[in-house]
């Protein structure tokens, strides 16, 4: 029997088709696309993939499948777009169960009706909950709420062999059995297919304020971070935009129009009176150039890179980010590298223009990675154009790689799920 | 070689490499380590070793591997699910000599500690600098960080601050094969690759021995307010909790006690909770002063509207301790009103509280077994204390039954059989009530990756061990160990 016929018997005529050019995963063209509508169908699809010896890549909203390493094979694209919807929203328990293909935006809209939210930023418009969890991406709110692994309290997944399994549950406090939700968060779809995710929720705060202060040097950022901590202002997010030189333009768009200094922005949330009082205190602690607004700057909750750029992520212990920022600037020199950092969480994202000479990019990465590692941190290339990617070690040294390989081998012994996409060739 | 001979050979090897004082093989001394906080299960370990360094732990684990003997890690032995129950045919690795705080890095807001360090010792160390370690199990004066990591321990304040998993960023681990690896980001909050740290935390000592732990330190909050609210009955107290959470307030803690547990606490520590209370709530708020003031006013209002007849607000730390005294002593206090008791630990969706309480009351009435209720009310974590008298024939069994039936209630309401005490040996048999065979099999894939030889705390958590590298048969008959009942599995 042909693959397409087999798939259609499970998901119906319109649920499976031949792949088109737009379905490419990085540069790899799949042959078939299948869009199941239930966990049970995902299981049957993966069994069919096993019978036909197909490699499978999962697509959430599909907008950013180019990151990580390209899979070494991807005959079957598993499209989650028909596996969406909020299964349950227990508002009184601050918990929701959501199908993996649900866009984060739809989840937030549903929760907002009860004055609640999933405290994760939508870094990429359209991203699905399965994609966000699998990529482990987080934005400014990570300072207070952590990354997706901290919000997930239960998962339903389908293993490479088609077996469906759960871990966790729908209560926030639960230590029964191993927590596979944390293992799957950030696993880039290499261990199994998430079909449902249970998450803990937070109330939408009564008031929010964005406090902005110009900053001139990374060392100043470090000092201010300490001052803010001591002033007990309690921001839920703290971000610094380190803009590119004024004259930098690309494709007719000005990437930055702000005045010369970088800006540091704090997000305060809470009861209206408390937020107002803390914003006043922030102004006092940070000085007269500080301004307060109820709206975020345009770059808030975005990445400093576009789809064609080289995307870097640097992580260091809190207080050590300034080293990598200096080294990035030094190594980049005339190249306009855009940097956003979260100094209180020790995370930095940077975008190097995609057209930059691959050798040059490799040297920048090398320089920053060396500094990051010397501070006990990491420098990871999240995404890069193919020509650049070929020149790079995307991840740098990884601890416990042997155990990671062993885990992958147990979950997916045939290497069927997104082979080659993850650290160490996993 | 048979087991005793292998144990003797390992004892000799470790005495030579670790020194005489680090190895205990005298039967009388071994008895000290026969059980953890759940004394119902007791076995004398085959051998006890007390390593002082990571290298020594490696040496012990390698010796076990080479002799093909199982080993069990033990911190302070306060676990309440038999997780640190030793093996008569194996080695108990006790971390009580690994108690150094290796580094406090305030700039990076973290500390690096050895696994035997007592939970409270960290906060003590950093409190002069206005920092603390957030997870605060009631046992924090004695339990170890290594045990906390293994159990993913929580505390009264985890409603707002989360569990151990949210406060540990790196672990040095000796794997069951005797290799030393770092899991997680060290002092960084995240790291590339699979989140093996995340799955190790809460794995109850079955994936290796943690030898260094990097913990996050949080700055102390500007303001803390604690209120004790007395209600005529549990349902009005429950309504107050619902109203507070529903209003979008996240207190640091909300604890609830019923009349029976109040009575016990009164007898034990004279906590002087309001007379005639059918239930009390302790609500603690912390954060920036302005926010706390606003939330405090709201909380008081919600309590009054729900029927609170008395509200006490702590004016200072001494009064705060006074309010907490009754709650913190609750487990031990029931000893005053009952000769024997079982501390149960289950979780329900918070909104199911009224129904579950009614069901527990009904259960209690039907069986004649009294149940005192103490809850982490904010997150639905119940600690029913099942009271009985061992000297009355049949009461022990009846209490066991009631205790198990409460777990069934939790599962039926979509909750969990354990919120913080873990599965250990005690609840392995209940795990299948929450999870399918496929679920448990999938969890054990992780186990097989870390410990294919099944030497690290075997027999805990999972009722049926997975044969690593094999495809499990479907719909199989129970494993012999399970059929025999778990205690006999050792
Ligand atoms: C390098 C990089 C670049 C990014 N670029 C941008 C950017 O320019 N702008 C921006 O706003 N955001 C960006 N993001 C954020 C990120 O793309 C989104 O947060 C989110 O991951 C995308 O969701 P998606 O539904 O489109 O997932 P996809 O892109 O479709 O998939 C993400 C990953 O998760 C896997 N996956 C998806 N669903 C499942 C599932 N159900 N089960 C198992 N695995 C699954 C996929 O196989 C893939 O590995 C970027 C992230 C990274 C790491
Ligand atoms: C009065 C009382 C109150 C309690 N209150 C709470 C509470 O509020 N919240 C809560 O969560 N728990 C509570 N507990 C339970 C218990 O204190 C916790 O589970 C604690 O984390 C156990 O720590 P321990 O050092 O005593 O560990 P042990 O009992 O010695 O061991 C527990 C488990 O951890 C494993 N282990 C120990 N050290 C290591 C290591 N270095 N590496 C790997 N595995 C290891 C053991 O093998 C075992 O499986 C309470 C217990 C008591 C007696």
UniProtKB/TrEMBL annotation, chain A:
Residues 25-204 form the FAD-binding PCMH-type domain. It holds the Pfam family FAD_binding_4. GO terms for molecular function: catalytic activity; FAD binding. SUPFAM superfamilies: FAD-binding/transporter-associated domain-like, FAD-linked oxidases, C-terminal domain. Keywords: FAD, Flavoprotein. InterPro entries: FAD-bd_PCMH (IPR016166), FAD-bd_PCMH-like_sf (IPR036318), FAD-bd_PCMH_sub2 (IPR016169), FAD-linked_Oxase-like_C (IPR016164), Oxid_FAD_bind_N (IPR006094). PROSITE patterns: FAD_PCMH. Coiled coil: none annotated. This is Glycolate oxidase.
TrEMBL record, chain B:
InterPro entries: FAD-bd_oxidored_4_C, FAD-bd_PCMH, FAD-bd_PCMH-like_sf, FAD-bd_PCMH_sub2, FAD-linked_Oxase-like_C, FAD-linked_OxidoTrans_Type4, Oxid_FAD_bind_N, Vanillyl_alc_oxidase_C-sub2. Keywords: FAD, Flavoprotein, Oxidoreductase. Its cofactor is FAD. Pfam families: FAD-oxidase_C, FAD_binding_4. Residues 41-220 form the FAD-binding PCMH-type domain. GO terms for molecular function: FAD binding; oxidoreductase activity. This is FAD-binding protein. It comes from Actinocatenispora rupis.
């Amino acid at each position: 029997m042909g693959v397409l016929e087999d798939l259609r018997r499970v998901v119906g005529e319109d649920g499976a088709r031949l792949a088109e050019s737009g379905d490419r995963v990085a540069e790899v063209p799949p042959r078939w696309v299948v869009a199941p509508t239930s966990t049970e169908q995902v299981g049957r699809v993966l069994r069919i993939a096993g019978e036909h010896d197909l490699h499978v890549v999962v697509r959430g909203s599909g907008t950013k499948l180019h990151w990580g390493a390209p899979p070494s094979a991807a005959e079957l694209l598993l499209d989650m777009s028909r596996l969406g919807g909020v299964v349950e929203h227990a508002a009184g328990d601050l918990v929701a169960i959501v199908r993996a293909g649900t866009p984060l935006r739809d989840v937030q809209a549903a929760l907002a009706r009860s004055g609640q939210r999933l405290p994760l930023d939508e870094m990429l418009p359209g991203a699905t909950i399965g994609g966000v969890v699998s990529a482990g991406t987080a934005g400014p709110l990570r300072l207070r709420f952590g990354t997706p692994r901290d919000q997930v309290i239960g998962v339903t997944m389908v293993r490479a062999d088609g077996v469906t399994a759960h871990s966790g549950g729908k209560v926030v406090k639960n230590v029964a059995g191993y927590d596979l939700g944390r293992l799957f968060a950030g696993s880039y779809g290499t261990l199994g297919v998430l079909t449902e995710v249970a998450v803990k929720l937070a109330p939408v705060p009564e008031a929010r304020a964005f406090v902005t202060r110009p900053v001139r040097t990374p060392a100043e950022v470090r000092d201010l971070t300490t001052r803010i901590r001591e002033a007990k202002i309690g921001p839920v997010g703290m971000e610094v935009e380190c803009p590119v030189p004024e004259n930098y333009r690309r494709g007719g768009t000005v990437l930055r129009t702000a005045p010369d200094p970088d800006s540091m922005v704090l997000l305060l949330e809470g009861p209206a009176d408390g937020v107002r009082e803390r914003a006043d205190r922030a102004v006092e602690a940070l000085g007269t150039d500080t301004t307060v607004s109820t709206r975020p700057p345009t770059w808030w909750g975005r990445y400093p890179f576009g789809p064609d750029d080289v995307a870097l992520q640097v992580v260091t212990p809190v207080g050590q980010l300034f080293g990598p920022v200096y080294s990035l600037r030094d190594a980049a020199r005339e190249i306009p590298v855009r940097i956003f950092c979260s100094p209180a969480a020790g995370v930095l994202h940077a975008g190097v223009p995609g057209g930059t000479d691959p050798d040059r990019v490799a040297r920048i990465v090398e320089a920053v990675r060396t500094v990051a590692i010397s501070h006990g941190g990491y420098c990871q290339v999240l995404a890069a154009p193919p020509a650049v990617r070929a020149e790079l070690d995307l991840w740098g040294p990884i601890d416990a790689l042997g155990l990671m390989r062993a885990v992958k081998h147990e979950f997916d012994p045939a290497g069927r799920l997104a082979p080659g996409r993850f650290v160490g060739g996993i | 070689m048979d087991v005793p001979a292998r144990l003797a050979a390992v004892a000799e090897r470790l005495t030579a490499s670790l020194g005489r004082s680090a190895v205990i093989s005298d039967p009388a001394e071994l008895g000290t380590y026969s059980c953890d906080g759940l004394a119902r299960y007791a076995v004398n370990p085959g051998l006890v070793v007390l390593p002082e360094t990571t290298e020594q732990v490696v040496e012990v684990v390698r010796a076990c591997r080479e002799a093909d003997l199982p080993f069990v890690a033990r911190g302070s032995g306060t676990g309440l699910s038999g997780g640190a129950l030793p093996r008569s045919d194996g080695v108990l690795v006790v971390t009580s000599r690994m108690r150094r705080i290796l580094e406090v890095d305030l700039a990076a807001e973290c500390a690096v500690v050895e696994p035997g360090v007592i939970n409270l010792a960290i906060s003590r160390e950093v409190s002069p600098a206005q920092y603390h370690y957030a997870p605060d199990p009631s046992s924090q004066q004695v339990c170890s960080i290594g045990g906390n990591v293994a159990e993913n321990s929580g505390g009264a304040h985890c409603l707002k601050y989360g569990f151990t998993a949210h406060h540990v960023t790196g672990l040095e681990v000796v794997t069951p094969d005797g290799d030393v690896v770092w899991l997680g980001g060290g002092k960084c909050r995240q790291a590339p690759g699979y989140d093996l740290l995340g799955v190790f935390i809460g794995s109850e000592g079955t994936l290796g021995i943690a030898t260094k732990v990097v913990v996050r330190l949080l700055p102390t909050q500007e303001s803390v307010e604690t209120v004790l609210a007395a209600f005529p009955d549990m349902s009005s107290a429950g309504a107050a909790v619902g109203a507070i959470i529903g209003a979008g307030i996240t207190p640091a803690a909300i604890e609830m006690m019923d009349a029976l547990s109040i009575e016990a606490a009164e007898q034990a520590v004279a906590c002087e909770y309001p007379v005639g209370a059918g239930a009390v709530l302790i609500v603690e708020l912390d954060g920036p002063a302005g926010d706390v003031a606003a939330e405090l006013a709201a909380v008081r209002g919600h309590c009054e509207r729900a029927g609170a007849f008395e509200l006490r607000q702590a004016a200072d730390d001494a009064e705060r301790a006074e309010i907490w005294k009754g709650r913190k002593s609750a487990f031990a206090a029931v000893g005053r009103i009952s000769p024997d008791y079982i501390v149960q630990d289950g979780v329900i969706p918070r909104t199911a509280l009224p129904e579950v309480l009614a069901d527990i009351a009904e259960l209690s009435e039907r069986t004649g077994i009294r149940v005192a209720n103490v809850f982490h009310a904010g997150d639905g974590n119940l600690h029913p204390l099942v009271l009985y008298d061992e000297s009355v024939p049949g009461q022990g069994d009846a209490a066991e039954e009631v205790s198990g039936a409460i777990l069934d209630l939790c599962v039926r309401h979509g909750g969990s059989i354990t919120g913080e005490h873990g599965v250990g040996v005690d609840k392995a048999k209940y795990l299948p009530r929450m999870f399918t065979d496929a679920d448990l099999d999938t969890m054990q894939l992780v186990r097989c990756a870390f410990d294919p030889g099944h030497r690290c705390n075997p027999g805990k958590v999972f009722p049926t061990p997975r044969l690593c590298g094999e495809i499990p048969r479907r719909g199989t008959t129970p494993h012999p160990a399970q059929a025999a009942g778990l205690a006999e599995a050792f």
